[in-house]
Amino acid sequence: MKALIMAGGYATRLWPITKNRPKPLLPIGNKTIIEHILEKVSDLGIPTYISTNKFFEKHFKKLAEKYEVELIVEDTYSEEEKLGTIGAIKNAVDILGEDDYLIIAGDNVFSLSLVDFVKRFNDIKKTLIAVYDVGDLELAKRYGVVILEGERVVYFEEKPPEAKTSLISTGIYALPRDVIKLVYEYLKNGNKDAPGYFIQWLLEKGVEVYAYKFSEYWYDIGSADSYLEALKMFLKESEIEEIQISPYAKIIPPVIIKKGAKILGRSIIGPYAYIDEECIIENSDVSDSIIFKKTIIRNSTIWRSIIDEKCEIRNLELRKSLVGGHAKIQRGD
């Protein structure tokens, strides 16, 4: 078996934060999204590959060296050119050869034990999907909705107009060799992007599909809200590196503050704040937010917002905002 982590998307729903930064490399707690996945995959001891694109290839090189995994790079540079998830799987199989594959979306964080999941797959040698109950029919409509008889999937509909259940597919799939071969047939007419349509097609074709249910937590980092909620889930303890902090500033844990940051004046940081390297926060309140490196915030209140690197924010109250890199925003004194 080979593990293939899909990280070739352009994450347009999180632009401008992900315009020049791959979503799997966004920080959650003290690790990036994809590092949370790689640590779980490493327990399997199987060859592991990250599928990405030419535009983001350089971003993943250090990570691949650190975790001793290989990159599979599709020759695309934009959302319009991308192969889509199923197209990228075919591209990887063309390079790596037919085999059983564990395929994982690179923008998910989850409590599922991959060791237990793969063990179950090896027992049945049938297509196996990881499923999770999101507990909300309206939310389920964003995903592939699943109905089971025992462990067997008897109904699957990708992004239905109305959800029959809140049990959904999570972007974690174990596909046996004989099913991997069917990707070529599917791509002649099928949706090249969302893998759920491939699972739906397999069922229509009479291929047996089984489900592995798990609980506790699962986050699909598809929006700013889901990203910030995942941050809160993983940010349990404060990590404060070598920083400058005013005696009048207050830190409300949990927070992560990276080296070289300056917390000045009567600032209040936290709870649930990620402050990247060399940021300057002066006389400002920052909570439930992520501030990327070398950003300056003065006399402002930031709540449930994500601010990219090298921004300057002055005299503002920002709530539920996404601010792209190098922006300068201020209200007159």
Commentary on this structure:
With 333 residues, this protein is of the alpha/beta class. The chain folds into 2 domains: 232 residues, Alpha-Beta Complex (Spore Coat Polysaccharide Biosynthesis Protein SpsA, Chain A); 95 residues, Hexapeptide repeat proteins (UDP N-Acetylglucosamine Acyltransferase, domain 1, 3 Solenoid), CATH 2.160.10.10. It is built from 9 helices and 30 strands. Strands 1, 4, 5, 6, 8, 9, 10, 11 and 12 form a 9-stranded mixed beta sheet that branches. The mean pLDDT is 91. It holds the Pfam family GMPPB_C. Keywords: Transferase.
Short structural description:
With 333 residues, this protein is an alpha/beta fold. The chain is 24% helix and 33% strand.
List the helices and strands and how they pair.
Blueprint: E1 2-6, E2 27-28, E3 31-32, H1 33-42, E4 48-53, H2 57-67, E5 70-74, H3 84-96, E6 101-105, E7 108-110, H4 114-124, E8 127-133, H5 137-140, E9 144-149, E10 152-158, E11 167-175, H6 177-180, H7 182-186, H8 195-204, E12 209-213, E13 218-220, H9 224-234, E14 239-240, E15 244-245, E16 250-251, E17 255-257, E18 262-264, E19 268-269, E20 273-275, E21 280-282, E22 285-287, E23 289-291, E24 296-298, E25 301-303, E26 306-307, E27 312-314, E28 317-319, E29 322-323, E30 328-330
